[in-house]
Amino acid sequence: MAGFDELLNVPRRKRRAPVTLDDWLMKSLDDSLSEEGRPPRKGVFYPTALGSRCDRYLYNCFHGLVKSEVISGNTQRIFDNGNFLGDRYETYFKKMRCLLAVESPLTSTNPPISGRLDFLIQHPEYGPTIVELKSINDNGFEKLTRPKPEHFIQLQIYLAIAKRDHGIVLYENKNTQNVKAFFIPRSEEEWEEIVERCQFIMGLDEQPLACGGYIFCACRREWDNDNL
């Protein structure tokens, strides 16, 4: 029987069959997952939209002016991966025996806001605590020293509507599965600013012309489509 040293000296076999990408399978996967997306419901603010800096985009969402877009196969896989992330953490929190609620709907009538918190857990120090779960790539994860502004706003909305005093934004690194958890207390001042912004948007007679968001703001796509 050949020894280990002898096996190391065996020349590697050359591949006899060419390796190519299977275009059919890749395209079929994308086509099967691709579908028409649903635009935001008119007359309601959503926490994700309120996390945007852009009043034009928020106005479009509230007034039903956001056009439906096709969700690509790749985008749907990203959404599904996010759902699986939530399923994993539900399992983790159950194992920790701290889970109180999952995917709980939250609504406000004045201003009209509709949302859904990720988790409510029993924290040993803070009691019932809302957890907003996010995934982020390695580059973004390393730069995090505090929650992203849009995630901070989302959590403040949930805290105010649910009348909870404590919340956590929990980030998982997509590349390494390392985590960062940022504790955030409820702020009446932040909630008042959110309410004032909603009232400002509802009081506008026409759509703001300028985009106040980042370069990837969704309202820029609407703008480009209007000018095609």
Give the gist of this structure.
The chain has 228 residues and is an alpha+beta fold.
Describe this structure in words.
This protein is an alpha+beta fold. It has one domain (39-203): Lambda Exonuclease, Chain A (Alpha-Beta Complex). It is 42% helix and 23% strand. The chain has helices at 4-8, 23-33, 47-50, 55-62, 73-95, 138-143, 149-162, 188-203, 218-226; strands spanning 35-36, 70-71, 99-109, 112-123, 127-136, 166-173, 179-185. It has a five-stranded mixed sheet, with helices on both faces. A two-stranded antiparallel sheet has the order 1-2. Residues 224-228 have low confidence and may be disordered.
- The CATH architecture term is Alpha-Beta Complex
| Coarse morphology | globular
The average pLDDT value, as a whole number, equals 87
Number of strands: 7
- Written as H for each helix and E for each strand, in order along the chain, the element string is HHEHHEHEEEHHEEHH
Please give the order of strands in the largest beta sheet.
3-4-5-6-7
Number of domains: 1
Largest sheet: 5 strands, mixed
Rounded to the nearest angstrom, the radius of gyration is 23 Å
CATH class: Alpha Beta
Q: In percent terms, what proportion of residues is strand?
A: 15-25%
Q: What low-confidence regions span 5 or more consecutive residues with pLDDT below 50? A: 224-228
User: How many DSSP helices?
Assistant: 9
* Distance, first to last CA: 73 Å
Query: Which structural class do the helices and strands define?
Result: alpha+beta
- The CATH topology label is Lambda Exonuclease, Chain A
